[in-house]
């Protein structure tokens, strides 16, 4: 095999694993576990034999249900080598949703951690085998028993060479915000086109280091952690708990990295809290000065204007004295580029990291497009856009501004759903994305919002809730989530939820005895901080977009819960139904104790 482009993931993996067998392919923070490429390849071979021994054949479906861990990789890749469709299940799914996903996928074998065995059984899906990691569970197969099932004469080479580009490599189940999750069928051809496309745009190299910390059921982690590794030979550090990503970054100092906007916002808040809480007055003054210089530089970058020589010179001095150390403390001092995706990121957050000297490029894509459809290298990026389409992809806009795309990234279809597939992809192969975008003369895309989520107020004005929410959140680390309300209403209001980690830091810094959501939601100082933040955000919005009233809810919304997806997208339908009473309270004639107005907002006339 040569280093030319390959047609299937097994072909690519076999070449990659042979390049440097002694190099580390997989690890955990602190090198608690490590697996070289040679060990990885040998593990794949014996696990593939074991899976074949229990009856897994080409076209069968194998599901994995586990945390981000080293053992996941050889198991997943072994299933690929048999021509099976292997995919991950969200660990938070209740039995009813688990039953739908496993049934729709036609799963025969599930490989899982012990804590999920009972839930799988409660789902009452006719599985042939449950393979259990870590410990022996009655009625399941252990990994050792799986390996022992392999036949001595199993022809591993013939098995993986029989895999075809058009075979379905994986299923990605959508979040199911408007019904049961749909299984996106993604082929080997889709994935290979995707990996080679982003490699060309971003310059990914063998041995580049990255973390895996997002759920492997999400296409973002599958692409950046699994598929990029198989094809290009990156080294992956598995982080079992997303809350541990900050120390994991400091341990690894990755060369490439990506996260959803909320993670970037949390990192930004952590830096701001660190600076504000610095006890040494001289050091604090130096850090505040450096951040102010970074902000001045990023203002020009956000505006797409050249940075003046005097600002550039002052930034270089700030970088040498302070900013370089901040990047090292974060663990992002070696990163050549980083990505943000899955949802719009506030421009101020992008500008903050650009000012620090951390190049973040915003990407756009979706599960139906194998993950990333538009991206630009940071040297070519325009802050506030999601880059340009990967070469080979085509775009057009419908009359209402919805983006439609066509090309090799478009999914094969939704599993078992011919009608829904036909509704999404027309006869000419154009996929309707559901996103309203603008496209400039140079082909850079800017996402406005989801078509179905645009607000039309009582006066008929169209608005993007995502734009409003990102503008408010940009300078407010205390805010974890905002749900803008305004459909058919005379003015906009919002439900605001505090960020659990930022709230704990705030309570500690302000000597508040109780950092619970219920206590902080009624604390006068917290209310004042949020009122000020909303007022500051309103100053950057048009009058019709501004938030006139808001309510701080006495709860934290956890990723993967009812209100927020694991990638921090707002489940607006759920929020609208669950908090209907709270929403109505925002439009009563008089203010209640739990309803606030922005700090500088004029009093509203009774409606």
Automatic annotation (TrEMBL):
Q: Does the keyword Lipid metabolism apply?
A: yes
Instruction: Report domain AMP-dependent synthetase/ligase positions.
Output: 13-414
Highest taxon in the source lineage = Bacteria
Q: Is Lipid metabolism there in the keyword field? A: yes
Sorted keywords for this record are: Fatty acid metabolism, Ligase, Lipid metabolism
Recorded hits in Pfam families, A to Z, give: AMP-binding, AMP-binding_C_3
Q: Which GO terms describe its molecular function?
A: ligase activity
Q: Which InterPro entries match?
A: AMP-binding_CS, AMP-dep_synth/lig_dom, ANL_N_sf
Protein family? Belongs to the ATP-dependent AMP-binding enzyme family.
What is the protein named?
Acyl-CoA synthetase
Q: Which organism is it from?
A: Nocardia jiangxiensis
Q: What is the lineage of its organism?
A: Bacteria, Bacillati, Actinomycetota, Actinomycetes, Mycobacteriales
The gene it comes from is fadD11
């Amino acid at each position: 095999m040569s280093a030319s482009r390959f047609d299937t993931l097994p072909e690519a993996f076999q070449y990659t694993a042979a390049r440097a067998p002694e190099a580390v392919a997989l690890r955990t923070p602190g090198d608690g576990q490590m697996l070289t490429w040679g060990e990885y390849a040998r593990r794949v071979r014996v696990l593939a034999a074991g899976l074949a021994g229990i009856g897994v054949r080409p076209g069968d479906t194998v599901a994995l249900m586990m945390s981000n861990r080293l053992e996941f990789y050889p198991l997943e890749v072994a299933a690929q080598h048999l021509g099976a469709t292997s995919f991950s299940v969200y660990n938070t799914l209740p039995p009813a949703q688990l039953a739908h996903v496993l049934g729709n996928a036609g799963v025969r074998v599930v490989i899982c951690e012990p804590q999920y065995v009972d839930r799988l059984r409660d789902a009452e899906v006719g599985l042939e085998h449950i393979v259990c990691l870590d410990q022996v569970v009655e009625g399941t197969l252990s990994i050792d028993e799986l390996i022992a099932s392999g036949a001595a004469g199993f022809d591993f080479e013939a098995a993986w060479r029989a895999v075809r580009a058009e075979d379905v490599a994986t299923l990605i189940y959508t979040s199911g915000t408007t019904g049961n999750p749909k299984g996106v069928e993604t082929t080997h051809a889709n994935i290979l086109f995707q990996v080679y496309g982003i490699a060309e745009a971003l310059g990914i190299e063998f041995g580049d280091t990255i973390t895996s910390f997002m759920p492997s059921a999400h296409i973002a982690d599958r692409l950046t952690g699994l598929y990029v590794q198989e094809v290009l030979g990156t080294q992956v550090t598995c982080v079992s708990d997303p809350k541990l990503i900050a120390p994991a970054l400091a341990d690894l100092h990755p060369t490439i990295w990506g996260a959803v906007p909320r993670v970037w916002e949390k990192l930004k808040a952590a830096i701001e809290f660190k600076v504000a809480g610095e006890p040494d007055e001289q050091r604090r003054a130096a850090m505040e000065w450096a951040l102010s210089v970074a902000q001045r530089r990023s203002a020009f970058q956000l505006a797409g204007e050249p940075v003046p020589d005097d600002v550039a010179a002052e930034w270089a001095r700030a970088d040498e004295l302070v900013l370089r150390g901040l990047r090292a403390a974060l663990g992002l001092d070696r990163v050549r580029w980083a990505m943000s995706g899955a949802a719009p990121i506030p421009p101020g957050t992008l500008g903050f990291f650009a000012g620090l000297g951390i190049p973040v490029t915003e990407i756009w894509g979706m599960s139906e497009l194998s993950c990333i459809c538009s991206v630009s290298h940071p040297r070519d990026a325009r802050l506030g856009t999601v880059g340009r389409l990967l070469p080979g992809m085509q775009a057009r806009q419908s009359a209402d501004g919805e983006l439609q795309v066509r090309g090799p990234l478009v999914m094969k279809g939704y599993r078992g759903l011919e009608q829904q597939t036909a509704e999404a992809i027309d006869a000419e192969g154009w996929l309707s994305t559901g996103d309203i975008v603008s496209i400039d003369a140079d082909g850079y895309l800017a996402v406005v919002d989801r078509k179905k989520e645009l607000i039309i107020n009582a006066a008929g004005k169209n608005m993007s809730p995502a734009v409003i929410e990102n503008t408010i959140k940009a300078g407010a680390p205390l805010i974890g989530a905002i749900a803008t309300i305004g459909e058919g209403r005379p003015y906009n209001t919002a439900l605001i939820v505090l960020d659990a980690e930022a709230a704990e830091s705030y309570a500690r810094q302000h000597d508040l005895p109780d950092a619970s959501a219920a206590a902080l939601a009624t604390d006068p100082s917290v209310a004042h901080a949020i009122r000020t933040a909303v007022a500051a955000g309103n100053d950057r919005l048009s009058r019709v977009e501004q938030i006139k009233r808001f309510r701080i809810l006495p709860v934290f919304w956890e990723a993967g819960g009812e209100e927020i997806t694991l990638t921090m997208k707002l489940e607006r339908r759920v929020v609208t139904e669950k908090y209907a009473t709270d929403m109505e309270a925002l439009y009563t004639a008089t203010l209640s104790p739990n309803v606030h107005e922005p700090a500088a907002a004029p009093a509203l006339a009774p409606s």
